[in-house]
Fold each of these.
Amino acid sequence: MQSSTVSTLLQDGSTKLRCAGSETPLLDCRILLAHSLGVSADALYSLYRDEVSAKAERTYHRLVHERSEGTPVAYLTGSIEFYGRSFLVDSRVLVPRPETEFLVDAALEKATGLPPGTILDACTGSGCVAVSLKAELPDRSIIASDISEDALIVARENAQRLAHNDIRFVHTDAVPVSLGPYAMVTANPPYVPTEQCPRRRGNASCKHSPAWEPMLALDGGQDGLDIVTRIASEAFATLCPDGWFITEIGHDQRTRVCDLLARIGYTNVSCTRDLAGFDRIICGRKTNRQSA
Ligand code: GLN
């Protein structure tokens, strides 16, 4: 039997994934084939005409099959790039989305002129936000919390691999109030309304494959706002004067979350959009009332 080349395997795999509904079939296949060959996705470009060993081909076919049934690419390769670093991920944590990089951008922007003190990353999941902030702001002390002990294991491993052993990880269901005050609280809380959280496995057309990811990281209650409501209130109680609360939101939650923050007492409430043009990040400040 004639051996397959990188080029033919990419063509065959992407046809299969396109039929299975993937919006990014060729990209998915490039990542999966590079992983099967043990090379970087960029290195594949110079290997297009090369023949692939039977072992790597078998691995690739298995991965393409699992992808066609909906498993996120990041779970198949075990890692994903976020804010320029590689994070370990598996089914214990939400796969970091590119839009969450805007949460890091917003936090770094507000970090200029921020009062001294600790930054808390609540609902840390894989730890991608906490580790990125520590890498960019090495002098800040960072606490990362999550309700899932399994997620914290992954987050700690990511911090260790990326040499940020000084992040403190805390198991708690919202804000570890007793460890405050905080200069800033960031969060990518679960915000998908319960009825929109698919309970069954889908196929590759589930862009974010929520059915494969921990429901704890997605399900935000009936209107999606249960957790953000709680974290925003607890954060307000424990933020330093002039500290910031910054949260990711669902694309249709802007008005409700801005109103929520204003009701709690935050000022300077604003929203920024992600690359797809969706409302995504909300910031609110706990103004020092004496100086306001
Ligand atoms: N952005 C994720 C999704 O749409 C949800 C992440 C979250 O709930 N924090 O699947």
Amino acid sequence: MSDSEQKNQSWGGRFTEPTDAFVERFTASVGFDYRFYNQDINGSIAHATMLAKVGVLSDQELTAITDGLEAVRADIEAGNFQWSVSLEDVHMNIEAALTERIGIAGKKLHTGRSRNDQVATDIRLYLRDQIDLIAKELARLQTGLLDLAEREADTIMPGFTHLQSAQPVTFGHHLLAWFEMLKRDASRLQDCRTRMNQSPLGAAALAGTTYPIDRAMTAELLGFDKPTENSLDSVSDRDFAIEFTAFASILMTHLSRASEELILWTSAQFGFIDLPDRFCTGSSIMPQKKNPDVPELVRGKTGRVNGHLVSLLTLMKSQPLAYNKDNQEDKEPLFDTVDTVMDCLRAFADMIPAIQARKENMYESARRGFSTATDLADYLVRKGTPFRDAHEVVGKSVAYGIKTGKDLSEMTLEELQQFSNTIEQDVFDVLTLEGSVAARNHIGGTAPDQVRAAVQRARAELKN
Ligand code: ARG
């Protein structure tokens, strides 16, 4: 064993004493970055393939490296790989295992490369894979929302502002509002993917390398759109991780809003929906309870994802060029964001199609809240009353309704005419909840026909 092998580390040559045991643990990342062993191996195979093409490695060396790396991958997958903290990270663990298997050729793999461009490559490859999985799960949720919206296109519920009954809407329309939020999230995710899909490989430690490397080739082999433009930037910035986590925070914020509504709606006080038992839990002390744990947890997990965004922003803040060890801290927040988002999307995608609308309760609640008051005002305006006067008339009608316990649609024509003699029999067409929603019949409006048309458009768009 040479000296440097004894001290084991790849930088051993310069050092006169081994790393302090605590420092070894403190600086190691293998406990979490082992996660992207696949991407690390793929990156190394691409790098070696390129080195062979430009004549830095022989064909035999390339074959030995490729076969060796595939054998290491198989070991890892079979659970036969010993990860070692003293080898610090996933990169050095895999390289050491390779060299142990194939000898000298293994030591040549790192020619023209640094862990700085290696990790920058791996993490982009990893995140790209995760983005594709997340995009799929998001689309599954969106599809579920569209199906439910179509099913509930005619279902009437109160629409709220300030959480006070405002105007009747259709449940389908409400669900499509959620859909739109998620549609923007999906497009933010793709934007992030496009911007990050450039290959940092070849930036080496920070300045590039003296070997005649072909960066376009490794970029293509790894499915990147092209090589990055600047080596210093390539190894140092983690803005793509920040951007992904920003996407995730906004998505979680949207899911938290939907969660909040689901939680309210399942309460006895609202009683708008039922969630199947499999998405709920009971109480160990109160036998009557059925708690909406799944949406509550999604709402709660929003906090941790927002926290990760702040972590990454703060991690990057004020870092001088180029690579700094600080960047090793990008991984745990990023991984946890990926896991949390995947779980929450899965929970929602499973739960949404199982929602049972309690239509009578929704309807009754809309009826009780004088939610067609605006319709009465609009009716008066159509008959020539100035809007401000109409507002006054309706205000008085509502006050009368509160006193007598009657909704506008339950008053007789004579009762309504106390407040304006412009009111005629046809007023009842607009005072019903059905008439109210059907009248908002334009793109983006709540009319059932518009909801159905919006679902069709959204389905077509989702397919592309
Ligand atoms: N484990 C390191 C990280 O995650 C890899 C890069 C280390 N580079 C270095 N010069 N120490 O950032």
